[in-house]
Write a structure and sequence with these properties.
The chain has 22 helices and 31 strands. The chain is an alpha+beta fold. α15 crosses α17 and α18 packs antiparallel against α19. The chain is globular and about 70 Å long. The two termini are 33 Å apart. 50% of the residues are buried.
């Protein structure tokens, strides 16, 4: 998982901006029939769910269902007229997914390479190519997207229509997966640092100060953070489906006599009541926090009825439907019946969540130390496996002609990698057994194995923080590649292996780290590209910057070394990370370009987490990425004109593969940074490996100073 935004610039060699397939998928024909029945010229299918989530559960994967593309970002438009057979079917996505979308899109779809020269934005394309009504599902379409499209549609030829029932759901029918409603757990103050009651009170004070009577919190990670709760309704994200509505007890509300209806409560949680019933601990926690519970189905009617003169919605995280309900169910914001002023402003919860308190930071550091120990064990294990499997290999590791018995004793990797570094449970492996192990030593197996190492290495480990990116050779150039069991490539000692993985830890940490290694002898090109990526990583990790600096102003540091060789990458350089929450969070980030204005205006401040993940991807050959998490801290530098300076502390402590580094390209300062980083890795992780002498010996060598 790389930072979400793609840069304007791209590697010097690139594919055409648009690619087209020809035959028509039957689902497209059925969808166009539904459009015509409703007098729609076009229909928009975004990636998001009703909470504008980046990652969604299976029941909300509508864009993947209709188009075949299952990346985390992308928006589809289907029309009834145009150049295609019966209309157009287009997908907009960013540079992380160009290769993946090319491979996954069904027949009849066209890929629009977002951000590339000559490729219009979705709203611009619709305004120029669609004449008639454009349908949306208001529950999954954000206010921002709606406003952008409305501003560009010609009034005389275009109109946005809110379609009551999602057309993709009609096509999906009974085969659509059920919405999860899993157990919700209390996230203790010992890990959160601040009680839910205090967080809510802070928000209510802000509302009263600004005379805001109603605020809707729709983003799932913000709901979980605000209430100190965690769930598992979306894979990898410890969140649950729900909304929080905050009501400020202003005079206007009291005059309307809402007190007798029980709606003067400071905070209301709208959730599937089945997730609350029977859980006394959860009920007591919410009661203590001053939170009233309402079934999620009641939200629409309640929003219509709540007395409010001024309401606050985050237009990037709230749907058109929420806005319509606040307006009494009227989608026309100019209607005379609308008595509510709706302020579109960034959710204050996002910033609260982004700036970690001391308790959260303590848990984050603990989680990263546990994670680094587990990843170090895996890196040791995979190198030992490669030495054994490919010791006599002259090919890509697929040789089938070993006749001799292998006298070397190793752990059988088919035991899912458990206790790989242990000296027990070893066995003598024959040529036949070796061949079987080579055959199963693939991207999918390694993804599952690193997860097993994390699970075995920590009682705090809950699960992966995202789908592990385990990619070998050409697959590494697919930035968000996910291996599948049936199609995973075998991993050998003849190419680069990229592993981007992370974990969720109950102590309060969400980890995200990438290492690129070679299990044999890397080529000079691979080493040079790796070193250029590393130089960019070091430049960003080493910078000190004045307060008020937003992340995009630092992005060039991570690219400068690559630019020397005419190289670049099509994704952002860094994203915020939650505290036992979503692996992607804002409002801050580091990117050359952004669709999120918050990234461009939010200064980095102490307590924020941000990743540092430059890369390089050579299509058809390999991918390289180096990723560590960084914590923003105050610098010891002098204050200039009253401005403080800040710096980054790297908090991922798994070693870099030294044989990938071309030291001739490095400055003395860069060599010193690498040596200091590895010394800190050893200092932090060595105590956790003392009972594993083989791993510890390897770790000592892996973190020893560069020559």
């Amino acid at each position: 998982r790389t930072a979400s935004d793609s840069p304007h610039t791209a590697p010097p060699t690139r594919a055409p901006s648009m690619t087209t397939t020809v035959e028509i998928d039957p689902l497209l024909k059925r969808l166009r029939t539904l459009l015509k029945e409703r007098d729609l010229a076009a229909y928009i299918i975004p990636s998001s769910d009703e909470h504008q989530s980046e990652y969604v559960s299976a029941c909300d994967e509508r864009r993947a269902f209709i188009s075949g593309f299952n990346g985390s970002a992308g928006t589809c438009v289907v029309t009834t007229t145009g150049d295609g057979d019966g209309g157009e079917a287009l997908l907009w996505t960013d540079g992380r997914y160009f290769l993946q979308a090319d491979q996954q899109l069904k027949k009849g779809w066209k890929l629009m390479k977002q951000g590339e020269k000559g490729v219009p934005t979705l709203s611009t394309w619709i305004s120029k190519n669609v004449k008639g009504c454009v349908g949306i599902d208001p529950k999954v379409y954000s206010i921002n997207s709606y406003m952008d499209l409305k501003a560009k549609l010609p009034k005389e030829t275009g109109k946005i229509v809110c379609v009551e029932e999602n057309l993709i759901d009609i096509l999906w029918g009974d085969n659509r997966p059920k919405r999860p409603a899993n157990k919700i757990e209390v996230h203790p103050v010992s890990a959160a640092g601040v009680s839910a009651k205090d967080k809510i009170q802070n928000l209510c004070q802000k509302m009263e100060k600004e005379s805001t009577e109603l605020m809707v919190i729709a983003a799932l990670d913000e709901v979980a953070y605000l209430l100190n709760l965690r769930g598992s309704d979306i894979a990898y994200n410890p969140v649950f489906y729900g909304y929080v509505v905050l009501l400020s007890p202003t005079p206007s509300m009291e005059e309307d006599g809402e007190k007798k209806k029980g709606r003067m409560t400071t905070a209301i949680l709208y959730v599937n009541s089945a997730q609350i019933q029977g859980d006394k601990k959860l009920q007591e926690h919410l009661k203590k926090s001053g939170v009233t519970i309402r079934n999620i189905d009641m939200l629409g009617n309640d929003l219509k009825e709540f007395p409010k003169k001024r309401a606050s919605l985050d237009p990037g995280k709230c749907s058109v439907w929420l806005q319509n309900m606040i307006r009494g169910g009227n989608e026309n914001e100019d209607a005379k019946s609308n008595k509510t002023m709706i302020e579109h402003e960034s959710s204050p919860v996002a910033y609260m969540k982004a700036v970690k308190n001391e308790t959260e930071i303590k848990g984050i550091i603990e989680a990263h130390e546990q994670d680094a120990a587990s990843l170090t064990r895996f890196l040791f294990w995979i190198e030992q496996q490669a030495k054994d499997l490919f010791a006599n290999s002259n090919s890509d590791g697929d040789e089938k002609n070993h006749e001799e018995k292998d006298a070397k004793t190793i752990e059988d990797h088919n035991n899912e990698g458990r206790a790989a570094a242990s000296s027990s449970n070893k066995t003598t492996v024959s040529s036949a057994a070796r061949e079987k192990r080579i055959d199963t030593f693939d991207e999918y197996f390694l993804a599952k194995t690193v997860e097993k190492f994390r699970a075995d290495g920590s009682s705090e480990f809950v699960g992966p923080s995202f789908a592990t990116i385990s990619s070998f050779k050409a697959n590494g150039a697919i930035i968000h590649y996910k291996p599948e069991k049936e199609t995973a490539a075998k991993v050998t000692n003849k190419g680069l292996y990229l592993l981007d993985s992370g974990g969720q830890y109950k102590c309060g940490g969400t980890t995200d780290v990438t290492r690129t290694v070679h299990l044999g002898t890397p080529t000079e090109l691979e080493r040079r590209c790796f070193t250029r990526v590393l130089q960019g990583h070091i430049a960003l990790a080493s910078v000190e910057f004045p307060e008020g600096t937003p992340g995009p102003k630092l992005d060039v540091l991570a690219r400068h070394a690559l630019w020397k060789d005419g190289l670049d990458y099509r994704h952002g350089t860094g994203h915020g990370v939650g505290s036992y929450l979503n692996v992607h969070e804002g409002p801050h980030g580091i990117s050359a370009s952004s669709r999120n204005k918050g990234i461009e205006t939010t200064g980095l401040v102490p307590g924020m987490l941000v990743t540092n993940e430059p890369g390089y991807y050579k299509s058809g050959e390999f991918g390289i990425r180096i990723e560590n998490m960084m914590l923003v801290k105050e610098s010891q530098s002098s204050v200039d004109n009253g401005k403080k300076f800040f710096r980054f502390q790297t908090i991922c402590w798994a070693p870099l593969q030294k044989r990938m580094i071309n030291t001739k390209l490095l400055s003395k300062q860069e060599v010193a940074w690498i040596n200091e980083f590895h010394a800190e890795c050893y200092r932090r992780i060595e105590p956790r490996l003392r009972d594993e002498p083989e791993v510890l010996k390897w770790f000592g060598e892996a973190t020893s100073p560069l020559d």
